[in-house]
Amino acid sequence: MTTTTGPTAVTGSVGTPHTRVEGVHKVTGAARYAGEIPFADLAHGWLVLSTIARGRVRSVDAGPVLAMPGVLAVLHHGNAPRVDTEYQGRLGRPDPIIGVFQHDRVPFAGWPVALVVAETSEQAREAAEVLVVHYDQEPHDIEFTAGRPGTYTPDTDGMLVEKGDLEAELAASAHVVDAEYSTPEEHQSPMEPHAATARWAGGRLDIVDSNQGSAWIADELTKVFSLDPGSVRVRSEHVGGAFGSKGLRVHQVCAAMAAAVLDRPVRVVLTRRQMFSLVGYRSPTAQRVRLGAEPDGRLRALDHQGHSLTSTVHEFVEPSASFGRPMYAADAHRSVNRVVRLDVPTPTWMRAPGEAPGSFALESALDELAEKCGMDPIALRARNEPAVGPVSGLPFSSRNLTACFDEGARRFGWAGRDPRPRTRREGRWLIGTGTAAATFPVLVAPATAAVTAQADGTFAVRITAADIGTGARTALTLIAADALEVAPEHVKVHIADSDFGPAMIAGGSMGTRSWGWAVTVAARELREKLLSGGDIPAEGITARSDTSALLGTLSQKERHSYGAQFAEVAVDVATGEVRVRRMLGIFAAGRIVNPLTARSQLVGAMTWGLSMALHEGAVRDRASGAPVGPDLAGYHVAAHADVPRIEADWVDDPDPEDPVGIKGIGEIGIVGAAAAIANAVWHATGVRHRNLPIRPDRVIEDGRTGAAVPEAGGSGA
Questions:
Q1: Residue 50: pLDDT above 50?
Q2: 323-356 pLDDT, tens per residue?
Q3: Less Cβ around it within 10 Å: N or C end of the chain?
Q4: Alpha helices in 225-271, H assignment, sequence order
Q5: Percent residues over pLDDT 70 in the chain
Q6: Average pLDDT rounded to a whole number, residues 427-436
Q7: Strand partners, 311
Q8: Cα end-to-end distance, the chain, whole Å
Q9: Residue 5 has pLDDT above 70, yes or no
Q10: Dihedral-angle region of residue 676 (phi above 0 means left; psi in -120 to 50 means alpha; beta otherwise)
C-alpha cells in the first residue's frame, strides 16, 4: 500500500498543446487495427454482393465453391442463422441490411447475397469471385430529381418548420433570390476499411471491430442475435477514420454468424469497392432557397427546401434544409426536408450531416442576395444577426458568429477586397475571394466513466469512448488530469471496450463533450475521496459516474458552435481549372481542449470542404444501378497537390454550462467551406456555380453560356 499524497497538484493541462498519447505507437506500427489483431485458428470471410439492382436470388451454386481448397462454408439466405431486425436501438430502427441473408430479395446493386468463409483471405476471395448466383431481375429506378413522383415529407419531428407568412413577406420584399442548388452523392472513404473479428466463448460473443462506439455496437448485436444483456463484448481500440460510416454494418453480423456456424473466430474485412455499397454515404441533394429582403438587407423571408434520397428498405433523410434555422433573423421562416425512395443503398450520417450540403445552398444564396443589395457579404450577415433563436425563440447559450467574421476578415485582409467580380487577374488566372458562415449544434448525451487511483500514484480512466483519429484519448487525458489536479503523465485512459459501460458514440461533435463530462464528474468525486485521507489498497480506489440525471437538468437553449470561412481562388481562363490558393477558418466552438489536435481536426475538415467543392461526386450507372468507379481512383478526393495554405483558429467561446467549457469541433470545419469557395469562384469569374463539384468542364461550359470570361481585368458582371 501507499499513501494518497501522490504527485504534486497540477492544473492547466486543458488548453495547452499536447502530442497524442498514442502517437509513438501509431508511427512505429505498434498500434493495431481491427484487421490486424491475431487470433488462433482464425478463418476469413469474403462477401459476395448482388450484381442486379432489384429482384430476387433464385439460387446460389455453393457446391463447386465448397470443393475449392480451404473453403469452410458458404452462407446465404438458404442456410444462414436467423437474426432479428425488428427492434428499436439507441438511434432508432436499424437498417434492414444488417438482417443479412434472411430472405431472397435484392433491393439495390451491392446487396450482400453470400459470405464465403475459408482458411485464408486469399482462398475466401478466390472462391467468392467464382461463386455463381442466379437472379430473377426486375426493373429498377435510381433517378433522383427534386420533386419527382414519390417524393414526400417524412412524418417525423423537424422535417417541416414554419413561422410567419412566407409568401406575403416574399411579395413585400425589395430584393428576392430564388435559386436551386445541388450536391452529388458523396462517400466517407476512411483510410482504414471496415473490419470485424468475431468469436463465441462461454456463451458470450466477443467482437474486435473498427467502430464509432463499442457500447452501441454491443447493444445492437445483443438485439440482433436475441442475446441476454451483457452477452456481447465489443472492443475497438484504434480506428483509422469513420466520419459517420462505422456503425453496425453487415461485416460484424456476418463475422458473428460465421463464427457461430464454424465454432471458431472469423474475420470479415470489407474491400474499398464494397464500402461504396455497404456502409452508407451522403445522399445527393436538390435544394431550393428563396430569400426576400428590404433594401438595407434585412431579411423578411427565408425559405429553404431540401430534397434527398433513401433506399426502399429504410428511411434516412439528409436534413440539408435545417441549416438556416438557428442562423438568421427573418419575419418568415420555412424549412422543409423531403425524400424519395429509390433502388439504391441507404445513405447515412456523413461529416456534418445536413449542415455541409445545406450551408452550400444557403450561404451561396446569401452571397447572391448581398450582390443584389449592393452590400458586403459579411455586413449582410451581421445585419441579420438574431437576438434569440430565429425559429425557436429560445435564448442562445452563446453566439459568437460576428466575432468569427471580425477576426477572420482582419486576418484574411477582407477590407481591401474590391466587391466587383472579374476585376483581378494574374496572367491566365482570374482571382476571387469569398466567405461563408458555419454552424453546428452543440449536443451532449449520457455517459458513464470510472476513474481509479492506483497504489503506484497513477490514475486509470475507463470509459467506452472512441478515438476515430480525432485525438480523443489525449483530450480525455487532459480533462482527467485537470479534474484530478495532476500532470497528464500520471493519467492512463482506457477506451473503446463495451465492458466499461454505456457511453455516447463518436459522432455529432458530442463525443468529447459527453465523455469529458462523465470523466470530470468521476474524477472530482475520486479526488474528494482521496482528500479524506487514508491509504490506497492494492486494488485501488474507484469513483464512478453516470451523467444521465445531470444532463436532464440542462435548461432549454439554442446551443451551437459557429465559424467564418474565407477562401481565395484562381480560375484558369483557358482550362476552367479552379485552384484554391488559401483558406482561413475562424471558429467559436467552445473551450479548445488540445489546440494541437483541434487545429488538425479543423484543417482536415476544411480540406474536405475543398474536396467537396471541387472534386467529390459519385455517379451511378443507370443500366446497372451500381456506382461507377467505386474506388479512390474513380472517386476523386483532394490530394496533397490540391491543398493550399489552410489556417484554422478560434475565438474565446467556452460553454458556461459544460464543466470543461466544451462545445465540439468534429463537424463544423467542413460547414460553409464549399460555399466560401463557390462564392470566391463567382467573385473571380462573375459566374455562379450552384451545382457541386465545380469541375473544369462546368466552369468552361458556364463561362460560354453565362458571362464571358474576359481576357483582361474588367468590371461588371
A1: yes
A2: 999 999 999 999 999 999 999 999 999 999 999 9
A3: N
A4: 250-262
A5: 97
A6: 97
A7: 342
A8: 79
A9: no
A10: alpha
| Cα gap 257→265, rounded to integer Å | 10
Which amino acids are annotated catalytic?
667
213/506 Cα distance (integer angstroms): 6
Q: Does the pLDDT of residue 229 top 60, yes or no?
A: yes
**Local structure of 625: helix, strand or coil:** coil
What is the distance between the alpha carbons of residues 526 and 544, in angstroms, rounded to a whole number? 8
Distance of CA 261 to the CA centre of its chain: 35
Whole-number Cα distances in Å, 659 to 360, 520, 549? 34, 7, 15
DSSP calls for 339-389: EEEESS------SSTTHHHHHHHHHHHHHHHHHHHT--HHHHHHHT--SS-
Q: What residue ranges in 25-108 does DSSP mark as E strands?
A: 43-49, 55-61, 71-76, 105-106
Cell of 646: 489552410
- Whether 217 contacts 172, CB under 8 Å: no
Q: Where are the beta strands (DSSP E) in 396-514?
A: 425-426, 429-441, 448-453, 459-462, 491-494
Q: DSSP letter at 429?
A: E
Q: Tell me how many helices (H) and strands (E) the chain has.
A: 16, 26
- Between the alpha carbon of residue 334 and those of residues 170, 173, 329, 635, 646, the distances in Å are 12, 16, 12, 35, 35
| Mean pLDDT, the chain, whole residue set | 95
Helices 673-685 and 355-373, axial angle in degrees (round to 10): 30
The strand order across the sheet containing 105-106 reads 105-106, 55-61, 132-137
Q: Give dist(CA 581, CA 683) in Å, integer.
A: 14
Residue 3: pLDDT over 60: no
List all residues 6 or more positions away from 449 whose beta carbon is below 8 Å from its beta carbon. Answer: 461, 462, 463, 500, 501, 503, 515, 518, 519, 521, 522, 544, 545
Q: Using an 8 Å Cβ cutoff, are 301 and 330 in contact? A: yes
What is the identity of the amino acid at 512? T
What is the structure's pLDDT at 8? 46
- pLDDT class of 140 with cuts at 50, 70, 90: very high
Q: Which three cell numbers stand for residue 315?
A: 428511411
The reported pLDDT for the residue numbered 92 is 87
Cα 251 from Cα 197, distance rounded (Å): 9
CB atoms within 10 A of CB 93: 12
Cis omega (within 30 of 0) on the bond before 693? yes
Short-list 164, 126, 280, 214, CA closest to 505: 214
**pLDDT reported for residue 708:** 38
Please report, rounded to a whole number, the percentage of residues in the chain having pLDDT higher than 90.
93
CA distance 645 to 139: 49
Angle at 460 between CA 457 and CA 466, to 5 degrees: 155
DSSP 8-class letter at 247? S
Question: What Rg value do the Cα atoms of the chain yield, rounded?
Answer: 27
Q: SS3 of 702, please?
A: helix
* 365, pLDDT greater than 80: yes
Q: Which of 542, 523, 544, 668 is nearest to 609 (CA)?
A: 668
H/E element, 516? helix 511-531
Classify burial at 531, counting beta carbons within 10 Å of its beta carbon; exposed 0-12, middle 13-18, buried 19 or more: exposed
Q: What is d(CA 489, CA 491) in angstroms, rounded to the nearest whole number?
A: 6
Reported as a single tens digit per residue, the pLDDT across 505-553 is 999 999 999 999 999 999 999 999 998 887 899 999 999 999 999 999 9
Nine-digit cell at 13?
493541462
Task: Indicate the pairing of strand 560-572 with strand 429-441.
Answer: antiparallel
Q: Please, what is the Cα angle at 243 between 20 and 583, to 5 degrees?
A: 75
Average pLDDT for 238-256: 97
| Residue whose grid cell is 465448397 | 66
CA–CA gap between residue 563 and residue 673 (Å, rounded): 10
d(CA 550, CA 213): 22
d(Cα 635, Cα 297) in Å, to the nearest integer? 40
